[in-house]
Design a protein that fits this description.
The chain is of the alpha/beta class and 310 residues long. It contains ten helices and 15 strands. The chain has two domains: 141 residues, Medium-chain alcohol dehydrogenases, catalytic domain (Quinone Oxidoreductase, Chain A, domain 1); 129 residues, 3-Layer(aba) Sandwich (Rossmann fold), CATH 3.40.50.720. The strands form three sheets. Strands 3, 4, 5, 6, 7, 14 and 15 form a seven-stranded mixed beta sheet that branches. A six-stranded parallel beta sheet has the order 10-9-8-11-12-13, with helices on both faces. Strand 11, helix 7 and strand 12 form a beta-alpha-beta unit. The longest helix is centred in the middle third of the chain and has 21 residues. The chain is globular. The mean pLDDT is 98. The protein binds NADP nicotinamide-adenine-dinucleotide phosphate (NAP). The site of NADP nicotinamide-adenine-dinucleotide phosphate has 33 residues, from helix 1, helix 3 and helix 4. NADP nicotinamide-adenine-dinucleotide phosphate binds next to helix 1, helix 3 and helix 4.
Length: 310
């Protein structure tokens, strides 16, 4: 089966397609033929050798990226009780999603309702859990509060805008002008070009900042948070500096690391099936062009989600 791997950390051209042997199934395992795999910034950062992700796999190269996918059960191992051949499944995997097939324990993936598109299911897990946990568990967002969401058109941001609206918050969404119609279609109450300093200066303060950009950009957004307000900074690499700056300003600030939680994921899938929100997928690349997908995600200006297909 075809698989994208890196042999060493480096730029996007480190991703090469190889033919890997299919391993036999152990009791409780299923083989899933990938229809779509999600591409996330963590894939590219880890490929480049950055952050906690690269630390975790540095002694295990070659490594195949990919932490979320949607696919169909193509083989069932002994003692499997939940699924059968042909079932449509989605969810998080511990790497290796950039593969024609993955082998997982049956409890790792969840069913896709018949009304949900393959592509939406493929792009939901990582960004969806991050948005939900950032807003609710870490951000403690309440109905009636104002929340500022920079990178609102991106993978996490476009889901966070819709979820925050569903929670009854007023959403201030930042994006470049080309994304304003998209951000309005997501239900954002105020849509602002983050490059427009004059307009940014007139923004009414918010209760919660869900910082999806980090670094100096995240720090510059702190001035828009009400005295005593809350900050959740999502990019891990710059979390310490954003938290320190926020605390100096008297704000309550925390970083976060998305937690795998299939109960929450099943809830989000149910909301997706009920059209409470949708997953935007802007580009789909063949597996062999994973390097182009990584260049796009590294541009920092992706709308919604990027997917790979075999
Ligand atoms: N801690 C965790 O567990 C966790 C989980 C998931 C993601 N993350 C991190 O969270 C961040 C966001 O992830 P993502 O998947 O949403 O990324 P993404 O899809 O690549 O985000 C792209 C978006 O960023 C916007 N953007 C770029 N520069 C901006 C700026 N200066 N101000 C405001 N918006 C800006 C772009 O908007 P325009 O195109 O309109 O300019 C684009 O819509 C990444 O750093 C990722 O690694 C962390």
């Amino acid at each position: 089966m075809k698989q994208l791997v890196i042999q060493a950390f480096g730029d996007a051209d480190q991703l090469v397609q190889v033919e890997s042997a299919s391993v036999p199934l152990q009791p409780g395992q299923i083989r899933v033929r990938m229809h779509y795999a999600g591409v996330n910034p963590i894939d590219a950062k880890t490929r480049a050798g950055l952050g906690w992700g690269a630390q975790a796999i540095k002694d295990r190269l070659p490594w195949s990226p990919g932490f979320e996918l949607m696919g169909v059960v193509c083989e069932v191992g002994p003692e499997v009780t939940r699924y059968q051949l042909g079932d449509r499944l989605f969810g998080l995997v511990s790497g290796g999603g950039y593969s024609e097939e993955v082998v997982v324990d049956e409890h790792e993936l969840l069913p896709v309702p018949s009304s949900v598109l393959d592509e939406m299911a493929a792009g939901l897990s990582l960004a969806g859990l991050t948005a939900w946990q950032g807003l609710t568990e870490h951000g403690k967002l309440q109905a009636g509060e104002r929340v500022l969401i920079p990178a609102a058109a991106g993978g996490v941001g476009h889901l966070a805008v819709q979820m925050a609206k569903n929670l009854g918050a007023t959403v201030v969404a930042l994006g470049s002008i080309g994304n304003h119609a998209f951000l309005n279609s997501l239900g954002a109450d105020e849509v602002i070009d983050y490059r427009d300093e004059a307009r940014m200066a007139t923004m009414a303060p918010v209760d919660l900042l869900l910082d999806l950009v980090g670094g100096s950009s995240g720090i510059s957004q702190l001035s828009h948070v009400k005295p005593g307000g809350r900050v959740v900074t999502v990019p891990t690499i710059t979390a310490d500096e954003v938290i320190a700056a926020a605390q100096q300003q008297g704000l309550t600030a925390t970083g976060m690391l998305k937690r795998n939680d299939n109960e929450q994921l099943a809830f989000l899938m149910q909301e997706l099936a009920e059209d409470k929100f949708w997953v935007e997928f802007s580009q789909i690349y063949p597996l062999a062009e994973g390097n182009l997908a990584h260049r796009q995600i590294e541009s920092g200006h992706t709308r919604g989600k990027l997917l790979l297909m075999p």
